Amino acid sequence: MSNFISSFPLAQFSERLSLDRIRTDVGSLQSSISKLRPPQEFFDVRRVSKPANFGEVQSRVSYNLGYFSANYLAIVSILSIYALVTNLLLLFVILLVGGGVIGISRLGGNDLVLPFTRLTTSQLYTGLFVVAVPLGFLASPISTMMWLIGSSGVAVFGHASFMEKPIETVFEEEV
Predict the structure, then answer these.
(1) What is the pLDDT of residue 52?
(2) What residue intervals traverse the membrane (predicted)?
(3) Domain count, the chain
């Protein structure tokens, strides 16, 4: 049983939190933030119009998804945070599982010795599983994900399909 726990990917979670990996992730986050378009350009109401046909919708969406990708990522991130803040039980379950896995992995495979008992890592993972699964079902993560997918899709594809491409790109396509 201990071989199963040691080969379990959650036990390696703390190893993945190395300082070099965090620096790399922060660097990629900074490059994404630098690609953000200004709000004046993103919310330019003069460029909003109804597309004439489906071909124009496809053209607008393909252009705007590339051009405003960092802005769309920010919108999806904000909606994700909103979904977690409005579903506090799901947020609690995520923090409980994350904290439990980190706490158990910090034991380094040793038993947790309490004044009244001794608990092995497999018992700790089982206890975390027994508590987290029923709470996870009560937190309704599937409906939260469906809401997040739907609201993100409407916001991103709605903006991408109604926002016209700049005039300069129209001339570049015809040449």
Answers:
(1) 92
(2) 72-104, 124-149
(3) 1
